[in-house]
């Protein structure tokens, strides 16, 4: 399947590593490996939270809990892509066909190419952003500083790890300790990137839909001649009508596939991101005025911003898709439909009526994703932060 021109190479590589990309080699072994690795990481991380809930600093507990929730959601995303493999293949196939047919006219070429280039920029920017988030927000810098300044550690608890875990190993042995740090860092980088790229993949898909809608709108506006006698009825070619109907149907089908792929992910995110933003916001608020305020805020702020960005991406794409759908009916109405005969006008009427059924992204098919939903997530998180401050 050749779609290198619509999705970046970095996206394909990460999806292949996690056994999501179609026709990857040893795909079942990849999925088994990541299932075991992520479940082990989750168990050890949550075990640390339970064991140190009262003995460690609240900042550290909240941060570790937020990281654990983030990677739980990441695994749920990956698992949904595994079980929705056929839907994902249909999406990629439709994107490949649209890219192949982009030479049908100048508008198709410009729109498809522009959105593909924009998608690649988002993909590459996400890889950089999440890599910086891992390095700044995790214990990477603290681990190496501590290991250099405190080489006389006498027990396991004095040796920092990149991810807080209770491991059944003697970390006083330098070889084992170094190996654990390398494994944790690679695991953290890969998981962070797949988490971010699955979010950006949604933007890529929505941009593709938006580009196809722009092409359809242009066809509708140019369907009737702009010059000539207004009283003289024009006759539409059946091939033009067929092309427009087929394009509209493809847009609807493509949007339904995106909805099927992401609706359950959005439902999980709607709950989890509220809790994650709440925990990280609590750390930022409570850390103000403490001796380590600068260190805590620096290590948390980027993680906090990325969590908010994740919620914003889902809500914005839902809003964007809805607005783009409305523009189809507007384009049909603003065309020179009054130059056509009654039969052609009925076609325009049916198209407008069909476009009034909005294409949306939903949260578990319960409620639509929109910017109002994003504001409700932020408001709920702020309310929970005030409750936590009152409790502690």
**Helical stretch tally:** 11
In this structure, how is the largest beta sheet organized?
2 strands, antiparallel
Order of helices and strands: HHHHHHHHHHEEH
CA-based gyration radius: 25 Å
State the distance separating the first and last CA atoms: 55 Å
The average pLDDT score comes to 82
Classification by helices and strands:
mainly alpha
Task: Name the helicity range.
Answer: over 70%
Question: Per the principal axes of the C-alpha atoms, what is the gross shape?
Answer: elongated
Widest β-sheet, arrangement of strands: 1-2
> What are the low-pLDDT stretches, counting only 5+ consecutive residues below 50?
150-157
Instruction: Give the strand tally.
Output: 2
Question: What does this protein look like?
Answer:
- The protein has helices at residues 9-17, 27-51, 58-83, 85-100, 106-137, 140-149, 174-221, 238-287, 293-334, 342-355, 371-391, and strands at 362-363, 367-368.
- By secondary structure, the protein is mainly alpha-helical.
- The protein has one domain.
- A hairpin with a 3-residue loop joins strand 1 (362-363) and strand 2 (367-368).
- Helix 9 packs antiparallel against helix 10.
- The longest helix is centred in the C-terminal third of the chain and has 50 residues, at 238-287.
- The relative contact order is 0.11.
- The model is unreliable at 150-157 (pLDDT under 50).
């Amino acid at each position: 399947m050749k779609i290198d021109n619509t999705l970046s190479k970095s996206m394909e590589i990460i999806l292949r590593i996690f056994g999501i990309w179609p026709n990857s080699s040893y795909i079942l072994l990849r999925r088994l490996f990541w299932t075991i690795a992520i479940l082990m990481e989750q168990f050890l991380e949550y075990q640390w939270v339970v064991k140190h809930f009262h003995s460690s600093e609240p900042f550290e507990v909240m941060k570790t809990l937020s990281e654990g929730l983030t990677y739980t959601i990441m695994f749920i995303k990956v698992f949904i892509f595994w079980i929705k493999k056929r839907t994902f293949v249909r999406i990629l196939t439709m994107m490949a066909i649209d890219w192949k047919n982009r030479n049908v006219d100048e508008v198709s070429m410009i729109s498809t190419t522009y959105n593909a280039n924009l998608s690649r920029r988002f993909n590459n920017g996400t890889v950089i952003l999440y890599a910086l988030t891992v390095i700044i927000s995790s214990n990477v810098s603290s681990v190496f500083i501590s290991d250099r300044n405190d080489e006389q550690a006498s027990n396991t608890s004095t040796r920092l790890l990149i991810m807080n875990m209770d491991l059944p190993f003697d970390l006083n042995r330098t070889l084992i300790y170094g190996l654990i740090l390398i494994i944790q860092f690679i695991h953290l980088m890969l998981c962070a990137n797949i988490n971010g790229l699955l979010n950006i993949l949604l933007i890529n898909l929505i941009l593709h839909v938006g580009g196809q809608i722009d092409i359809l709108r242009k066809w509708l506006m140019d369907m009737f001649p702009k010059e000539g006698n207004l009283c003289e009825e024009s006759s539409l070619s059946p091939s033009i009508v067929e092309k427009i109907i087929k394009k509209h149907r493809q847009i609807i089908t493509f949007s339904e596939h995106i909805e099927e792929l992401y609706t359950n992910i959005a439902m999980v995110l709607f709950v989890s991101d509220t809790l994650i933003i709440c925990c990280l916001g609590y750390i930022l608020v409570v850390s103000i005025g403490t001796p380590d305020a600068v260190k805590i805020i620096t290590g948390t702020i980027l993680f906090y911003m990325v969590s908010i960005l994740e919620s914003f991406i889902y809500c914005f794409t839902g809003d964007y898709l809805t607005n783009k759908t409305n523009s189809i009916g507007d384009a049909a109405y603003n065309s020179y439909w009054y130059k056509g005969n009654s039969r052609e006008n009925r076609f325009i009427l049916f198209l407008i009526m069909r476009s009034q059924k909005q294409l949306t992204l939903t949260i578990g098919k319960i409620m639509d994703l929109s910017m109002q939903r994003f504001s409700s997530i932020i408001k709920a998180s702020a309310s929970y932060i005030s409750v936590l401050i009152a409790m502690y």
